[in-house]
Design brief:
The chain has 124 residues and is mainly α. 83% of the residues lie in helices and 0% in strands. The longest helix is centred in the first third of the chain and has 24 residues, at 20-43. The N and C termini lie far apart (38 Å).
Length: 124
Amino acid sequence: MNNGAAAAAYKADRFENAPPLKLVLMMYEGALRFLDQAAAAHAAGDVPRFQERCLRAQAIVSELRLALDGAQAPELAANLNGLYLFAEGEIRAGILVGAATQLEPVRDVLKTLLDGWRRIEVSS
């Protein structure tokens, strides 16, 4: 097995065996990382990378929204759904107008939510 295949297997195992809360944390961290990379690409004038990184962050936010279970906590799910829709819309607007400034409110929302999930993880 070459190094690339070994790294891919390790990554896949990390996701497949992670508890649900850990997966949520990893998704938030990934979305934030892609938003940071999008902002850096924008600053460097790399429009294709800016758009691609935005789309990756948007895909993660969409997955978080689609995974909501309103039966478990209807009010919480509705609130998170609204925040995720806001984030998706702002990312889309950022791509359309080519402005990294559109990503800052999204980053703030996701960072706040990540901090909240981390507090839940610590108290579990």
